[in-house]
Amino acid sequence: MAVNKKMGKQTIAFHNPPVIIGASSIVGPKEGQGPLGKEFDTVLPDTLVGEQTWEKAERKMLKTSCEMAVQKAKLTLQDIDFMMAGDLLNQLISANFTARDLGVPFIGLYGACSTMFEGLALGSMLVDGGYANHILTAASSHYDTAERQFRFPTEMGVQRPPTAQWTVTGAGAAVLASGGKGPAITHVTIGKVIDLGISDANDMGSAMAPAAADTLIQHFKDTGRKPSDYDLIFTGDLASIGRALTEQMVKQAGFDISKNYTDCGVLIFDSARDTHAGGSGCGCSAVVLAGYLLKQLTAGVYKRILGVGTGALLSTTSSLQGESIPGIAHAVVIEGYKLGGN
Amino acid sequence: MSENEQPSPEEMQKIQYQQMVMKTKPKPPLLRNVAGAFIIGGTICTFGQALINFYKSVGLAKPEAGAATSATLVFIAAVLTGLGIYDSIAKYAGAGTIVPITGFANSIVAPALEFRREGMVFGVGQKMFTLAGPVLAFGFVSAWLVGLIYYLFS
Amino acid sequence: MDYLKAFVVGGGICVIGQLLMDLTNHKITPAHILVGFVTGGVVLSGLGLYQPVVDFAGAGATVPLPGFGHLLAQGAIEGAKTKGILGAFGGGLEASAVGVAAAVIFGYLVATVFTPRGE
User: Fold this and answer.
1) A193 shares a domain with A169
2) A64-82, pLDDT tens digit by residue?
């Protein structure tokens, strides 16, 4: 039984790749108007969705998205062994309160905007390890709840610099199973927390890019793969500036990802959305993966993709105390060709 | 930390990265921002001048006309913030909507409005001073010091 | 003519704020601008440097935040002159009372009447 599933320094290769048997995505109106608008399962008409507060609205999105993913997997909540979810709000109130309502055994995760990928990585380990048959993993973010926690009130007359990113209002969820139909997770690379001294809270992409680059480089070293082994390489929410920086840093290490690399924060908004550098937030990579990229895998457009969830691990306290912003990134390899497999 | 003057490899990496970031990231559109600040800030001040002239013409003395002008501008800015218009103007104006007294009003209304769901006391009442509080604290203390210095040395 | 002066000087003061934010990579935030310009106005006024600007530009100097600082400082000086040490405490507040009270009162009322729109 003592089979070593670890590969290199930070990567795990699964023996029975867990299958994503259901995934769902819900976004706000601005994301719905973006280039991926038609791909998402639900586009909300407004950001309050009939609730009293934005925090409640975020929870409603997360809950609905979880229920939808379970439903698409043709399961009920009773079938879920563990739920693993997180969000950006202090003490994870969105995920915690959602888990309260769903009544599923729950593990709260905080990886900032990398949470969805942290959940996929850990969930896959539990499934492949035989500790669970069905894992529900989810993440959410909401522009208005995040903005007032991390920056200025939304009605405050503040000019956003060109490096600023727009927190995606959205929630994504996925159900992992030990077998079944769907794209499968074959490898994960767990990233290190990297901090190269960026402290500008209006420039998250630059703060997170070193972590993304480090994880990507480590993934290539651990697996012996090349960038061209993937149909698509994507990062979570680095947006345009972070993407350019990541590309440069990975190139310096001898890997050219310029041909097949993009970022969810770039995909989700176009320039007409006036978001400056692009999207960010837990919801950004969660909905682009669940709503768009997984569908592309199922449709056969891509066969094998490498996703890197990226998170900026700052708090308002650390920012005010002048600390720089540490970043984290976890990589997940998803393959589509196992359709209907074992 | 060693005593040698060369930065450690980690520090070198940080410095190199920050140089790379500076090269990669777009600069703020300085000319457009400055023009926006100048035109919109100037317009607010011109409007203020019109108000002063108006209040003087209806018989207010100079200090009262100034106070009435401030109150009027503050009222307009508060309502525009409530309607969600002020921050849309600020997108183009930058400092042009922060530096005039209207920016002070906006800094009070914006957090108060945003946190009203946390209640009237801990939401509106408390949060309205998150940005205005420091302004008043620094303003009052420095003005008191000026008065004190004047008192002691004259 | 006084309109043109107000426009140019008022706009000019705003441009200083814009440059401070843009040229420091936004290390100077709007909050710093609010605090810094009021305090700066107090200091300039205390040194006697702001009154000439007010005389020249009218609202162009009184509407921007340094004008608020000027009001505070002149109030404190006036208080110290007429009422002594207690006047230094109260003078600034007295002079700026209408503006500050208006901001607090209208701010509170607007926050209770309107709902936040978000985005």
Assistant:
1) no
2) 999 999 999 999 999 999 9
